[in-house]
Design brief:
Blueprint: H1 6-10, E1 23-27, E2 30-34, E3 48-53, H2 72-89, E4 90-101, H3 112-123, E5 126-134, E6 159-166, H4 182-188, E7 192-194, H5 200-203, H6 212-221, E8 227-230, H7 237-244, E9 248-253, H8 256-274, H9 284-294, E10 300-301, H10 302-317, H11 324-333, E11 338-341, E12 344-346, H12 363-372, E13 390-394, E14 409-413, H13 414-421, H14 423-442, H15 446-461
Parallel strand pairs: 2-9, 3-4, 3-8, 5-7, 8-9
Antiparallel strand pairs: 1-2, 4-6, 5-6, 10-12, 11-12, 13-14
Length: about 475
């Protein structure tokens, strides 16, 4: 390939001391750099778990800070350089979700998708699969080639690719915490995704992608607490979805105006969608809790809740309720709902303390606790090698003032986490059975007395809630 023209590379390089990285914005587990992804020193080596990005397509889009209509060979050289840097930043088990066109007609027909995949493989990236995204934009077509003639018609597919690549190992040896539910997994592992594109006018960026795209990639290809990177951060869409799904995020964006747009959009979105936990009037979280409070002590699956809150929110506000599933999970994380199984929750006023001071382990701290415990349950020793799902939980419960600290955290398998979570319920049950036995004895109901004594004997046999004293009559 010929050398890349100086302006293509020089225009997107920034002079700065690599020890003073140009952080434009940071918020908890989010960092946005106003810099160029052509600078390999901007990020640390092997620091990223998942890269999600949509690079310039070289189709003449009017970006602020870089030219998007270069010679095709120059464009491929540019692509090689930034993808090589991503390879350096990626961990051995990192994945790479690359949103690119299948092909292009503007400026001459080119097999963009195939060419970029070939370059990525030459760099060292390994190919896993391709997702076809049908964004349904065929109505916007303006180029037909030869109209109603076989002379030179253009065939344009209204789809884009999301190419899934990985660095060295596809299967992650260390099993982290997944937050994807069954319905999402079943739908998203189908390689044809159909959802609308995003409006550049609404977002204020010439080429935004919809939130649904990074959201699916984040949940399908990364664990909670992983680090997500978007080297062309643009309007901050990947940043928003990484944060809302409890991942760390590193974004790189060349244009300062787009950085400012990202920051503003991020803060507004987080305030709107994640700030309602305070239960302010008409918040989305409040509406979800309203549904659960109307249906206490019942195991309820996501679809039933979602159907009601989406319709009710639109009726009350005239607006669309974005991602109610996330709201349900947030309420669980904050201690407002009990998780019965994957995608099934319960509101039980007797067992769930609705408190605002509950502390949860942030993703990075969870990771530290898992690493300290060698990714094994501290009770039975089962872990990643046995394929057991692991949880991080408090040693001293939150309800008794337990804090989310490294010292108060422990790794439990699903079985022992379940036993711990239900300890309070077994305590209440034992008290209830003792009280029922007293009533049965007063009315001399012999069969009921026999049944209750047998149940209470099981408590004694296995030393469950031994501090609640009961002794069988001799």
């Amino acid at each position: 390939m010929p050398a890349v023209k100086n302006d293509l590379l020089n225009n997107i390089e920034i002079d700065y001391n690599i020890n003073e990285k140009p952080i434009f914005f940071s918020n908890k587990n989010v960092k946005l750099y106003n810099a160029s992804c052509l600078d390999k020193n901007i990020l640390d080596k092997e620091s990223v778990d998942l890269i999600i990005t949509s690079p310039p397509y070289n189709v003449g889009i009017n970006y602020n800070s870089n030219e998007d209509f270069n010679e095709y060979e120059e464009y491929l050289e540019f692509s090689k350089e930034w993808m090589s840097n991503c390879y350096i930043w990626a961990k051995d088990t990192a994945r790479f979700c690359l949103n690119i066109p299948l092909d292009k007609n503007k400026g001459g027909q080119q097999s963009v998708g195939a060419d970029l995949i070939s370059i990525a493989k030459d760099i060292g990236w390994k190919y896993h699969s391709s997702i076809v995204w049908n964004e349904g934009n065929i109505s916007r077509r303006t180029a037909w080639g030869s109209w109603l003639s076989a002379s030179a018609p253009y065939v344009i597919a209204p789809v884009e690719l999301i190419v899934v690549l990985y660095k060295n190992e596809w299967k992650k040896k260390i099993k982290g915490e997944s937050d994807i539910i069954k319905e999402e997994f079943m739908a998203w592992t189908n390689g044809l995704w159909s959802f609308n594109g995003e409006s550049k006018k609404r977002i204020g960026h010439p080429a935004p992608f919809p939130r649904e795209l990074p959201k699916r990639c984040v949940k399908l290809f990364s664990f909670v607490g992983d680090t997500i990177c978007d080297p062309f951060s643009g309007s901050g869409t990947t940043m928003i979805e990484a944060y809302l799904n409890n991942r760390n995020f590193i974004g790189i964006e060349l244009d300062k105006e787009y950085c400012a747009l990202s920051k503003e959009r991020f803060l507004q979105t987080i305030e709107k969608e994640n700030g309602g936990i305070s239960m302010s009037k008409y918040s989305q979280m409040d509406l979800i809790m309203e549904f659960f409070k109307k249906n206490p002590n019942r195991d309820i699956s996501h679809p039933e809740v979602v159907d009601w809150v989406v319709k009710e929110w639109e009726k009350r506000t005239g607006e669309v309720f974005r991602d109610p599933d996330r709201g349900i999970r947030k309420l669980h994380e904050k201690g407002y709902l009990q998780k019965i199984s994957k995608g099934v929750y319960r509101y039980d006023p007797d067992f769930v303390a609705l408190r605002d001071d509950l502390e949860d382990f942030p993703p990075q701290l969870k990771k530290q606790i898992l690493e300290r415990d060698n990714y094994k349950c501290v009770i039975c020793g089962m872990g990643k090698e046995e394929g057991v799902e692991l949880h991080v939980d408090h040693i001293k419960p939150k309800s008794l003032g337990g804090k989310a600290t490294l010292e108060n955290g422990q790794t439990l398998c699903s079985k022992h986490n379940f036993l711990k979570k239900n300890l309070k319920q077994t305590e209440t049950g034992k008290k209830m059975f003792i009280r029922m036995l007293e009533i049965a004895k007063k009315s001399n109901e012999k069969e009921l007395i026999e049944f209750l004594e047998e149940v209470l004997s099981v408590y004694e046999k296995y030393n469950i809630n031994g501090h609640i004293v009961w002794k069988k009559d001799k």
